[in-house]
Specification:
The structure holds 2 protein chains of 2 kinds. In chain A, helix 2 runs parallel beside helix 3. By secondary structure, chain A is α+β, with helices and mostly antiparallel strands. Chain A starts with a helix and ends with a strand. In chain A, strands 8, 9, 10, 13, 19, 20 and 21 form a 7-stranded mixed β-sheet that branches. Chain A has a 6-stranded antiparallel β-sheet with strand order 3-2-1-4-5-6. Chain A has a 5-stranded mixed beta barrel with strand order 7-14-15-17-22. Helix content of chain A is about 20%, strand content about 40%. Chain A contains 11 helices and 22 strands. Chain A has 2 domains: about 230 residues, PmbA/TldD superfamily (PmbA/TldD fold), CATH 3.30.2290; about 230 residues, no CATH class. In chain B, the strands form 3 sheets. A 6-stranded antiparallel β-sheet of chain B has the order 3-2-1-4-5-6. In chain B, strands 7-12-13-14-17 form a 5-stranded mixed β-barrel. Chain B is globular. By secondary structure, chain B is α+β, with helices and mostly antiparallel strands. Chain B has 2 domains: about 220 residues, PmbA/TldD superfamily (PmbA/TldD fold), CATH 3.30.2290; about 220 residues, no CATH class. The chains are: A alpha+beta, B alpha+beta. Chains A and B meet through strand 1, strand 2, strand 3, helix 3 and helix 4 of A and strand 2, strand 3, helix 2, strand 6 and strand 13 of B.
C-alpha cells in the first residue's frame, strides 16, 4: 500500500472506526444483482480565504467539509447518496439508498483492489500552513499599499488570498483503490480607477496546485496588481465596441476560454453518448481548420486544472481532442467510457463527495502554430483584438457559444488602435473553428484562475492558446 | 432513507439548542459578540431520459457557520462536521482569524434594539410524501408528453423531479434566535428537437413550496417540446437597432441586475453604475418596485434577514424614482444609512405592470426582437454597459416571423431602465422577482 493511501485512510477512515480492508465488504453489499459498477468517494476538505478591502483586512473565513459519496450503476442508471458522517453505519445506509435503482440482472462482484502507480503532480503538504496568519495578513497589506502607490487614479483596491487542501480516497468495484492529496491556492487583485468622473474596474490573479509561497516568489502578487491596474486604465479610454460580424484576433493565454466553450464542452463523453452535442458521431471528421490541434492535459505539474488521478481513481493523461482539424476523441469518465465502449481518459471529476462525477475538462489548450503574432494583427484590415476575456458559456446542442471581452481593441489597417468597451462575442463552435485562419507561435497557458460550471457543479480548470485569428465572428457592441 | 423521513419543524428545537451551545462556546473562548446559523436539509432528485431512469439522488446536508467578533475585529468559520469537538474547533478557527483581522469601525452585530421581536409564520413548509417510484413515474409522464407533442422531438436531455425540505436557525449574542422549516419542489424538462441537420434544445419547469401545486407534468413536457420545436430553423438577423421584448422569465434578470446595482455592497465599493442616484428618476413614471417579504408560501418570503432584523414591506422605486438602496447592517454603516433589513437579499420583488399580455406587447412592438434566451454574463456593474448573447424570435407587423439565434443585444442599463415602454401582465411566478415581459424601446442587435 502506498504511503499516500495509508496517510489518507488514516485521516479519513480511522476516526469513524473504518479501515481500507472493510471497504471491499461495503462494495460487496453494493454490488448485488443488477449492479454493473459501484464506488465510494471519501473526502475531507479544509479551505480558507482572506479579503482586504478599504485598506484593512476585513474578513477571513475557514471551512471544514467532509463526507462520503456512494454510487451504484446499473446500465445507464445511477443511484447516489452521501453522508457527512464517515462511519460503517452511515456507509451502509447510503449504500442501501444508492443501490435501490438496481433491477434484476447479473450478479455483481468486486474485483481485488489494486492501486496504480501514479506520478504525483503536486506536493501533498497543507498549503494553508506554509505561512502563518500574521504573514498572510501582512502580504495582503503590502500588496494593497504598493498598489495604491502605483497611481493616484486608484479609488478602491480589493486583494484576496484563498487556499484549499483536499484529501480524497476512492474505492470501486472494478478494483480501483486510490488516494490523492490536492492543494489549490489563488491570489486576486481588483482595482477601481477614476478619471474625469469616469470609473472602470480591472482585475487579475493567478494560482495553482501549489502553496502560498508561489505568490511571494518572482514578485507574482504585485505582478497581478500591476496587470489589474493596466487593464483598468486601458478601459478608461475605451470607446463603444462595434456591432456586427468582424475578423477577430484572440490573444494568447486566458483567451483559451474560447476553446473551452467552442470545443471543450461539446467533446465531453456524456453529451456524445446521449447524442445531444453538435459534435456527436463526428470522430474522424473535419470539425476545425487544419491549423487546429487541441488537447486536454491533466498531467501538467502544479497547474490549476491538473490531477494526479481523477475522482474515479483513473490516472490523468494528455488526450488529443482535435488533430489538424480532425476530431480524434472525447473526454470520458468510467460510466460513459463503458457505455461507449472506449477507455476512460482520466476526466471523471466531481465538485465534492456530495456530487456525482461527470466527464469534465482539466487543462484544455491549442498547440502552437507557425505565425508571428505581429503578422496575424497585420493581416486584419478592420477587426477586433481580444487581449483578455471574462467568462463564457455554450449550448452544446446547437453549438452556440459566447464569451465576453474584458480588454479589447480595434484593429484598423493592420494596427491595434483604440481600446473598446467589454462586449459579448457569439458564434457556433465548429463554424468558428473552421474559420481559424492563422495560429501564432506563442502558446501560453492562463495564470490559474479558471472555474468551470456544469450541471451546477464547479471544478477548477486551466485553458490556453496561442494568438489566433477567426475570420468572422459576431461582436456585440453598440457602435459601428 | 427516503424523502419522507421528515426534516421539519420538529427538528427546530434541537437546532436552536445547537445554536445556543455554539454561542456559549464562542463566549467561553473569549468572543465579545457572535452570530451563528445552523442548517439541516434533505432531498430526493430523480431524473429520467429517453423513457429510462437515469439517476436517483438522495441528499442530506447539515452544517453550521459562525461569525464572531473581538471588539471591531471579525472572523468566520463553518463546517459540515458535528459534535462537541467540531464546535470547539470551528469556534477556535474563527477566533484565530479575528485575532489577525484589522479593526473595522463598521463591523459588528446590528443594534440589539433592532432585532426582530415577532416572527410571523409564513407557511413555507409543505413536505411532499412522494416515493422515488412515484417521482420517477411523474418524470416519465412529463417526458412522454414531450415526445408525443411533435415528431421532431428526437432526443431528450433529462427530466428531473426534485423535492427538498430543510430547517435553518439563526441566532446571535444579543439573544435573538429565529428559525423556520421550508420546502421546495420542482419539475423540469429539457428536450431536443431535430430537423434539416439542426438540433435545438429548450426547456420548461415549475417550482413550488407545495408539491401538489406544481404545474401538471404533461403540460410542462408539452411546453418544453413546443419551445424546442419552435427554435428549429433559427438564424441570425442583420445588425440593427430595434425594440427588444424580454420574455417574462428573462425580464426577472433585468430587475435582479438593478437590485445588484442599488445594493450597499456594490455602492460602498464604488462598483455600481447607480451610485449616488437616490431620489433620481431611473424608470418611467408609471413604474414601481415593491418588496413584500411576508407573503405566505412565496419562494422569497422571510420574516427576518441575515442580521436578525425584521423584514418589512417597502418600495425601492415609486413613480420611477429611486427611494431606497438595498442595505444590510454592514453596508448601511459604510454608507451612513440605516439597514433596510436586506442582508441576504430582497424578499419577493413586485414590478408594476399594465394590462397587456405578451402577445399584445408583440403587437405593440411591431418590428423587433422577442428574446427568450440569454447567454453569458455581459454586464459591467461599474459602467452599466450590457452586452449578451441572445436567441428568440423576429417580429414584423406585430407577429412572430421566424426563430433567431447567434445574435447579441447591447446597450447601457441606465438607458434600458429609462426606455422601458411596458411591463406585461404575463407574470413570472416561479421567481422571487415577479414581473411580466418587458418591452424596451431600442437596443443594438448585432448579427450577420
Amino acid at each position: 500500500m502506498s504511503e499516500m493511501l495509508l496517510s489518507v485512510s488514516e485521516h479519513l477512515l480511522a476516526p469513524g472506526g473504518l479501515a481500507i480492508e472493510q471497504l471491499s465488504g461495503v462494495l460487496g453489499e453494493l454490488a448485488g444483482p443488477g449492479i454493473d459498477a459501484a464506488d465510494l468517494y471519501f473526502q475531507s476538505q479544509v479551505s480558507e480565504s482572506w479579503v482586504l478591502e478599504d485598506g484593512i483586512v476585513k474578513e477571513g473565513s475557514f471551512n471544514l467539509d467532509q463526507g462520503v459519496g456512494v454510487r451504484a450503476q446499473s446500465g445507464e442508471k445511477t443511484g447516489f447518496a452521501y453522508s457527512n458522517a464517515i462511519t460503517a453505519e452511515a456507509l451502509s445506509q447510503a449504500a442501501r439508498a444508492a443501490r435501490s435503482i438496481a433491477r434484476a440482472g447479473q450478479e455483481g462482484r468486486v474485483q481485488a483492489f489494486s492501486t496504480p502507480q501514479v506520478t504525483a503532480l503536486y506536493a501533498p503538504g497543507n498549503p494553508l500552513d506554509v505561512i502563518d496568519r500574521a504573514q498572510k495578513v501582512e502580504l495582503l497589506k503590502q500588496v494593497d499599499q504598493a498598489t495604491r502607490a502605483l497611481d493616484p487614479r486608484i479609488k478602491q483596491v480589493t486583494v484576496s488570498l484563498a487556499g484549499v487542501w483536499d484529501r480524497i480516497l476512492v474505492a470501486a468495484t472494478d478494483g480501483s483503490l486510490g488516494a490523492d492529496i490536492r492543494p489549490l491556492v489563488r491570489f486576486n487583485v481588483s482595482v477601481i480607477v477614476e478619471q474625469n468622473g469616469r470609473r472602470e474596474r480591472g482585475g487579475h490573479g493567478g494560482g495553482g496546485r501549489t502553496d502560498y509561497r508561489y505568490f511571494m516568489n518572482e514578485d507574482r502578487a504585485m505582478g497581478y496588481a500591476r496587470e489589474a491596474l493596466r487593464q483598468a486604465l486601458v478601459n478608461l479610454e475605451a470607446i463603444a465596441a462595434p456591432a456586427g460580424t468582424f475578423p477577430v484576433v484572440m490573444g494568447a493565454g486566458w483567451s483559451g476560454v474560447l476553446l473551452h466553450e467552442a470545443v471543450g464542452h461539446g467533446l465531453e463523453g456524456d453529451f456524445n453518448r446521449k447524442g445531444s452535442s453538435n459534435y456527436s458521431g463526428k470522430v474522424g471528421q473535419q470539425v476545425a481548420s487544419k491549423l487546429c490541434t487541441i488537447v486536454d492535459d491533466g498531467t501538467l505539474a502544479e497547474r490549476r486544472g491538473s490531477l494526479s488521478m481523477d475522482d474515479e481513481g483513473t490516472q490523468t493523461q494528455c488526450t488529443t481532442l482535435i488533430e489538424n482539424g480532425i476530431l480524434k476523441g472525447y473526454m470520458q469518465d468510467k460510466l460513459n467510457a463503458r457505455l461507449m465502449g472506449v477507455a476512460p481518459t482520466g476526466n471523471g471529476r466531481r465538485e465534492s463527495y456530495a456530487h456525482l462525477p461527470m466527464p469534465r475538462m482539466t487543462n484544455t489548450y491549442m498547440l502552437a502554430g507557425e505565425s508571428d503574432p505581429e503578422e496575424i494583427i497585420r493581416s486584419v484590415k478592420k477587426g477586433i483584438y481580444c487581449a483578455n476575456l471574462g467568462g463564457g458559456q455554450v449550448d452544446i446542442t446547437s453549438g452556440k457559444f459566447v464569451f465576453s471581452t474584458s480588454e479589447a481593441y480595434l484593429i484598423e489597417d493592420g494596427k491595434i488602435t483604440a481600446p473598446v468597451k467589454g462586449a459579448t462575442l457569439i458564434g457556433n463552435g465548429p463554424e468558428a473553428m473552421s474559420k481559424v485562419s492563422m495560429v501564432g507561435n506563442d502558446l501560453a497557458l492562463d495564470s490559474g484562475v479558471g472555474t468551470c460550471g456544469k450541471d451546477g457543479q464547479s471544478v477548477p480548470v486551466g485553458v490556453g492558446q496561442p494568438t489566433l485569428k477567426i475570420d468572422a465572428i459576431t461582436v456585440g457592441g453598440t457602435g459601428s | 432513507m427516503s424523502a419522507t423521513d421528515v426534516i421539519g419543524p420538529q427538528a427546530l428545537p434541537a437546532l436552536q439548542a445547537q445554536v445556543e451551545q455554539i454561542i456559549d462556546e464562542a463566549r467561553r473562548q473569549g468572543a465579545s459578540a457572535c452570530e451563528v446559523a445552523v442548517s439541516l436539509e434533505q432531498g430526493l432528485s430523480t431524473s429520467v431520459r429517453q423513457r429510462e431512469v437515469e439517476t436517483v439522488e438522495f441528499n442530506r446536508d447539515q452544517g453550521f457557520g459562525i461569525t464572531l467578533y473581538l471588539g471591531q475585529r471579525k472572523g468566520s468559520a463553518s463546517t459540515s462536521a458535528t459534535g462537541d469537538a467540531a464546535i470547539r474547533e470551528t469556534v477556535a478557527a474563527a477566533l484565530a482569524i479575528a485575532r489577525h483581522a484589522s479593526e473595522d469601525e463598521s463591523a459588528g452585530l446590528a443594534d440589539a434594539a433592532l432585532m426582530a421581536r415577532e416572527l410571523p409564520s409564513l407557511d413555507l413548509y409543505h413536505p411532499w410524501a412522494i416515493t422515488p417510484e412515484q417521482a420517477i413515474e411523474q418524470a416519465l409522464a412529463c417526458e412522454a408528453a414531450a415526445f408525443d407533442t411533435d415528431a421532431r422531438i428526437r432526443n431528450a436531455d433529462g427530466t428531473t423531479l426534485s423535492t427538498h425540505q430543510g430547517c435553518r436557525v439563526y441566532g446571535n449574542s444579543h439573544g435573538f434566535i429565529g428559525g423556520y422549516a421550508s420546502t421546495r419542489h420542482s419539475l423540469s424538462c429539457v428536450m431536443i428537437a431535430e430537423a434539416d441537420g439542426q438540433m435545438q434544445r429548450d426547456y420548461w419547469y415549475d417550482v413550488n413550496r407545495q408539491g401538489e401545486r406544481l404545474a401538471d407534468a404533461t403540460g410542462i413536457g408539452q411546453r418544453a417540446a413546443l419551445r424546442a420545436v419552435s427554435r428549429l430553423g433559427a438564424r441570425p438577423v442583420p445588425t440593427c437597432e430595434v425594440p427588444v421584448l424580454f420574455a417574462a422569465e428573462l425580464a426577472t434578470g433585468l430587475f435582479s441586475s438593478f437590485l445588484g446595482a442599488i445594493s450597499g455592497g456594490n455602492l460602498y465599493r464604488k462598483s455600481s453604475f447607480l451610485e449616488g442616484t437616490l431620489g433620481q428618476q431611473l424608470f418611467p413614471e408609471w413604474l414601481s418596485l415593491d418588496e413584500r417579504p411576508h407573503i405566505p408560501r412565496a419562494l422569497g418570503s422571510a420574516s427576518f434577514d441575515g442580521d436578525g432584523l425584521a423584514t418589512y414591506a417597502k418600495s425601492f422605486v415609486e413613480r420611477g424614482e429611486l427611494l431606497s438602496y438595498v442595505l444590510g447592517t454592514y453596508s448601511g454603516r459604510k454608507l451612513g444609512l440605516p439597514s433596510t433589513a436586506n442582508t441576504g437579499g430582497v424578499h419577493n420583488l413586485f414590478v408594476s405592470h399594465g394590462e397587456e399580455d405578451q402577445a399584445a406587447l408583440i403587437r405593440r412592438m411591431g418590428r423587433g426582437l422577442l428574446v427568450t434566451e440569454l447567454m453569458g454574463q455581459g454586464l459591467n456593474m461599474v459602467t452599466g454597459d450590457y452586452s449578451r448573447g441572445a436567441g428568440g424570435y423576429w417580429v414584423e407587423n406585430g407577429e412572430i416571423q421566424f426563430p433567431v439565434q447567434e445574435v447579441t443585444i447591447a446597450g447601457n442599463m441606465r438607458d434600458m431602465f429609462r426606455q422601458i415602454v411596458a411591463v406585461g401582465s404575463d407574470l413570472e411566478l416561479r421567481s422571487t422577482i415577479r414581473t411580466g415581459s418587458v418591452l424596451i424601446e431600442r437596443m443594438t442587435v448585432a448579427g450577420s
